[in-house]
Amino acid sequence: MRAELIADVVAEFKAYGRIVIVGASLAGLRAAETLRDEGFTGPLTIIGDEKQEPYDRPPLSKQVLKGLARADHTLLPRMRKVDADWRLGVAATGLDRRVKQVRLADGEQVPFDRLLIATGTRSRPWFNPQEAALEGVFTLRTADDAGRLRAALAAGPGRVLIVGAGFIGSEMASVCRELGLAVTVAERAEGPLVGALGGVIGDIAAEMQRDHGVDLRTGVSVEALEGDAQGHVRRARLSDGTTLDVDVVVASLGSIRNTEWLEGAGLASGRWGVACDAGCRVFDINGVVTDSIFVAGDIARAPHVLYDYQFLVQEHWDNADVGGRVAAHNMVSLEPQRRPHLPLPAFWSGQFGVNIKGVGVGPFADEIVITQGSVTDRRFAAAYGRNGRIVAAVTFNHGKWLEYYGALIERSAPFPPPPPGYDHPDGMQPMPARFPTPGAPTGWPDVVLTGHDPTERGAEYEYRTKKR
């Protein structure tokens, strides 16, 4: 009888009330599907500021720009019908927790009993609005962005300038070279990818770019863009005093988390996202966990046991996919059935003929060691360490070993790690990983540790928009 009563309580809880998901991308879609899979039968509303149905973003900087796929042909596969009220093309502008309503840009108020925040990020725009409005100046985040940029590249510009050499900027530079276009990359840091992978790997990435004909400028910023009489960008002025003639400029300056609509809601939200516990439940500004508001995807900021319980934000596909599913499960589960979302960050990037894959949090480390393969051949594995423990790994065309390194990280194995398999380089001596010092002028890594306080607004890296 007790078991039957518990089953009835669980079923009633799963079906209870109205659920609203704000954010119609990967995390939001997977959460909606999971809610239905888990037995939620109540009203479900999905709100998204873009008019398109949920689509996949990684192909935008790769296949779409190459012309191998159309920007409007990247819809995410639907795993099942979700029977939802889709509100697309209208942004959420506010949250009233007292009456449990989401305010929309069109003035509508959408009531909820449980809410999932999955509003993700947007591209950081060019710092000068007048220059940003010049024809030929782009950012890349949405399918519309990718479609417009693809058309500009297909027109055969004389020179493309990419400002920022993170993963997306480097991938775009690779595409430009594949298309036979002259491309300059301007990066404020000492090399490409240093925010995410450190200076040792940044040196290797810089060689890769230059070997493929990229005009890579490091340690410089772009101070101004100039247009012609028709309003098309034609020149860029760099901080070293040089001037470039350009026809297309892509600002790859990192992202901004979409939290402004939560101002005044009393949640622990800010420029680093929305703080939550390991079960995706949101904290309020006093550090008290909420019972009815959850968060998932790029905007979620949660403590991680492997990294001193610091709050971690990560803009990775797997985090949005799995995080949306875990959040949805916990939304319709009683406490004993809830589970944590403690992903080991993982990423991949294809550029200049090399498949780069990584796992863990590189910027947490202070040392690196090449463990397998050949740096010269661009086929190797490297491990990152801190305080005698392996905390991350990266591979270049050696991804089959990534699972091995991930398992070491998950059990806090010693650093340097035991040599795996075969193909060990001579020496295997750890060296400084050369991550940027706090406040250094560099773009954000895709994974950022943001301290221990759920309401903390600061972090190790500071983005500066006034001077580039």
UniProtKB/TrEMBL annotation:
Domain Reductase C-terminal: 347-416
Pfam families: Pyr_redox_2, Reductase_C
Cofactor: FAD
Keyword Oxidoreductase recorded: yes
Keywords: FAD, Flavoprotein, Oxidoreductase
Renumbered residue ranges of the record's region Disordered: 416-445
Domain FAD/NAD(P)-binding as annotated: residue spans: 18-303
Signal peptide: none
Protein name: FAD-dependent oxidoreductase
Source organism of the structure: Pseudonocardia xinjiangensis
Lineage start: Bacteria, Bacillati, Actinomycetota, Actinomycetes, Pseudonocardiales
